[in-house]
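Ticket reopened. Same input as before:
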Amino acid sequence: MEQHEISKAVIRRLPRYYRYLGDLMDAGVERISSAELSAKMNVTASQIRQDLNNFGGFGQQGYGYNVKYLYNEIAKILGLDNVHNLVIIGAGKLGQAIANYSSFEKRGFIIKAMFDNNKDYFGRKVGDIEIMNVDELSDYLSNNNIDIAAITVPKEAVNPIADILVKCGIKAVWNFAPVDLELPKGIIVENVHLLDSLMQLSYNLTEYEHTR
Amino acid sequence: MEQHEISKAVIRRLPRYYRYLGDLMDAGVERISSAELSAKMNVTASQIRQDLNNFGGFGQQGYGYNVKYLYNEIAKILGLDNVHNLVIIGAGKLGQAIANYSSFEKRGFIIKAMFDNNKDYFGRKVGDIEIMNVDELSDYLSNNNIDIAAITVPKEAVNPIADILVKCGIKAVWNFAPVDLELPKGIIVENVHLLDSLMQLSYNLTEYEHTR
DNA sequence: TAGATTGTTAATCGATTAACAATC
DNA sequence: TAGATTGTTAATCGATTAACAATC
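Engineering reply: fixed in the latest deploy. New output:
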């Protein structure tokens, strides 16, 4: 059966559905209709049903969706039923912030090690996670089952790091440096550009001042 | 003259254009055609021209675009010709990472103060930026010209903070907590959901493994 | 002037919304 | 069974791409 390509817009919304369903579950809600969820999330009920039906029929006519079931199904779609091992490259404040953030671990993203080129850091720990010499990165990746590398180094340091990652067969890169990383086909890249986000905010702020 | 609404998709691309033009400027490139830029950025030349023409005609037939001029014009569109004063609420690792990140200051985003509820932090500094008692937030906002508040506190702490910010007339909030903040109309909210981003990465990773 | 490349209109494509038959 | 609400098809809307006349 030929599966049609799911659009990026849909995939961007999945974690949001997941978050709201998690909150509903915590609140003890057992079932919800697309109309009710629509009201909470400020999206149309139609869009919710369309989005979900890309992956299967998770609801029941006349009833709606079972919150817990849908929550778990979305988790599967997002691959959260598998554990993913991460390393963080760059042990500065941002790398440490990520290492510290317990919600990642809760969703199966396990941070195994951090790397830096500053020898003052070597051997220190962030929580349980050891900071290692970046010279050992290549060896480490060869001997451990790491799926994802988070890059939190300065712009200039990204390319040499990326070369090592590609050479060692990394599957995915979560990049925080302000460059659009180009890696060989098949390697997933997810960029987080904080400055871009702040500039979008600034645009909206400026826009607002212009038009009122 | 009635100005038509610019779509979010366009606004999301502006910082990216800005970034590439900055790189070109640094590389000493004086002019560029939409076709050349298109090749570098993996977008169509048509889209570049359409996007820019939402804001004005910045190019010249037969010549292309002057890199420096276009760079500065986009800066104006994004509101980067004005200085924006920020406070950071939440002095944990993520707040510190943002406080430390010099690129923000370079673009006119000036971090004035940080706030936390943990008294161990009070009076400490991150770089030049003092960490204050969150009880003083309201007073501080009243007496200083702050446009933007970055929120880097845990989920549970967001709503009381948001109430204070709204009461003190904050213009924009840059929210890092995993909730979709609902503020009164006119207040700009930009959410950065790192876990959502990681889940999208996970989806793509899983997708890839399914379909090859 | 001839060549290049924009600005802009028209065509296409894809995503969102509406509508409703299927069905619990 | 009647009512509710999904899954899904069709209609609409908006964004992207193509094409080309305008013009430097």
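Chain A has two domains: 8-77, 84-195. Chain A has nine helices and ten strands. Please confirm and we'll close it.
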